[in-house]
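@channel sequence for tomorrow's demo:
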Amino acid sequence: MLRLKIIVISALLMLTWQMGLAQTSQEMVNIWEHTDVRKKVFLTPYIAEGKNNPCVIICPGGSYFWHDTDNEGVKVAEWLQSNGISAFVLNYRTAYVPAFMFRTRLLVRGNQYPDPQNDLQQAIRYIKEHSALYGIDTTKVGAMGFSAGGHLVMSVAEKYDSPYSRPAFVAAIYPVVSFTADCTHKRSRRGLLGEYGKNNKAKREALSLEKHVPADCPPVFLMNCVDDPIVDYRNSVLLDSALTAQGVTHKYIQYKTGGHGFGASSEKGTQECRQWKEEFIKWLAAVNK
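structure tokens (generated this afternoon):
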């Protein structure tokens, strides 16, 4: 009976996710179409009025197992669009609920590193290749990630296939950062690395973001809350210290209250933490001068 309930819950979560995508836009595109990668990974555009707009690729959180497509996806895109910033919500590959519940990746590979990182880089390439269609300035294609999505955007900022797939800037919102420190978010580590890879010391080291910040890292907007009950706030402290040590242009805002998972919601979190949206708009304008 318990197993049946878990299966039903998993199916409902997947249905809810699919319905959320269907309600966001009728213009979803498969970023891997017409490539050698036989995957369907969708990008949903929210295009601001005007030409040569800055662009933000949004990577929702979800421990690399699922996505929060509402507060950390759709609402973020609509907020950015209303501020003259074009946005794209990326449905990057995750392990999904069955892998979380039943550890299916003990038997099959499923989705794991570097699938999400490849998806984000392909999304950057796709938008640049279609910049005329969307009215996008190719020099201003950045990425914003929440929680595990924050880890994703920073990992690509640190290591990318080519300059063409490098984000121009990143915003890491209450991000997962370390895979080796005491403050590691273990569920995200397992979600990205899989049941076997999560115990691989070399992979843990390679994906601990605080240890691999390059001197030429793109500008970073970093925000979290001290009372975060999900991702220990010290993750962002480690990243801030690493960015500072490398002289990387960045802004770190640490709020006392707000918790986790509020995204662009006007109800979740606290009045204090919801100030991050205004701070980001000002920061992005300064970066793009």
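heads up for whoever presents: The CA atoms of residues 117 and 152 lie 6 Å apart.
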